[in-house]
């Protein structure tokens, strides 16, 4: 059985995510967050430790998609 934990994000961000995922295969904010985190972790495991530049690139991509405020 998979155990879960809670991650808190600001309500306004959760509302924006809800609007963004409407009409997609993501059924909830949690689904999207799991997908994004899993993608980052997989990339990290494939490439080894992320450099600061790689992390900043990922953060910039997420900001461009509206998931992070910069």
Automatic annotation (TrEMBL):
Q: Which InterPro entries match?
A: Arc_rbn_hlx_hlx, Ribbon_hlx_hlx
Tell me the GO BP annotations in alphabetical order: regulation of DNA-templated transcription
- Looking at the UniProt entry, the stretches that span the membrane are none
Q: Which SUPFAM superfamilies match?
A: Ribbon-helix-helix (SSF47598)
Tell me the protein's name: Ribbon-helix-helix protein, copG family
Source organism per entry reads Halobellus clavatus
């Amino acid at each position: 059985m998979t155990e879960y934990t809670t991650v808190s994000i600001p309500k306004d961000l959760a509302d924006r995510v809800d609007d963004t995922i409407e009409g997609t295969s993501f059924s909830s904010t949690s689904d999207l967050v799991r997908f994004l985190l899993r993608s980052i972790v997989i990339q990290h495991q494939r490439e080894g430790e992320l450099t600061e530049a790689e992390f900043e690139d990922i953060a910039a991509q997420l900001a461009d998609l509206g998931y992070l405020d910069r």
